[in-house]
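Hi C.,

You asked whether I'd gotten around to modeling the 320-residue construct. I have! Everything is below, sequence then structure, no commentary in between.
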Amino acid sequence: MASPKPSNDGHGGKPTSDTDDYMSMTITESSADALVFENSAQRRARKRRDAESRARQPSKSEIALRAQLNRHEALSTSLPINSKGYQIMEKLGFKAGSALGREGNEYARTEPLSVALKEDRAGLGMGVQRKRKIKKDAEIGEGAKKRETEGGFRESKARQRKQQTAEGLCWGAMRVLEGFEGEDTITGDGMVDGWKNAIRSTSQSSTGINLLWRGLLRDREAKQREKRMRYDLHQSLSRNVAYVDPDEDMQDRQAWGTKVEEVEVDDPELEEFNRLDPAERLRRMVEYLREKWRYCFWCKFQYPDAIMDGCPGLTEEEHG
């Protein structure tokens, strides 16, 4: 039996790494390439997520952000060598890293001017004006805060509350005057139902009413006029205005819009009176009630004589 021939590989016949049997070699796989087992439910969920991500439409903000990133990347990247513009510049003598223009110019730029995109719709000088306005408003606000102390703020609030209280008391005093003078203000033949019905049935103006409580009457007339106008408008939509019914009375014609209602007349005297301070108007009403009707607005009592024995005084502070 012939003996095996010695190997000439220089290792004494022993097998090297290059001559290892391929059957004994192990193939290692990276973890990224290794297959991950997933069941049917996980596979359906993965496919559904992939389909949703592909079908999802990006929002306007996402599109704007993506465009901004792409624009920033394009502006921050130098001109590619294989571009047509770079090739034309190179033919004209441009070299990468050098400046444009005459050689030896120390002020020549080696980088192009940076682009600052204007994304809003304001004018070019609007930003400077806006900054000036903000600065001016800040200075005015700081000066106002320095001038307005805590005590001044409290005083203004207290003054405002006092005026509101006086305004409410004025309306109360006007209602008291209406109770005293309402039935005796308008008199005459055929006016036996009181001054309210007399004003409604005639075209007489309310300028003959006492100035101190005339505003209450004018306010009530304005509210009634507005209510009547709304009612007339509603009724006129369901009937032809040109139709004239001989059996209608004056109130029906006014309701159907066939009779023009009188408008409110100006009262300069009342307007001048209303421009007074509420405290001054209230003082005049209280004094008039005491002189004419012997009634104390603060005591809520009508005294039998002009001496008004037992009344502390004219003002609310005197009544405690």
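If it helps when you're writing up: The first helix runs from residue 40 to 55.

Thanks,
B.
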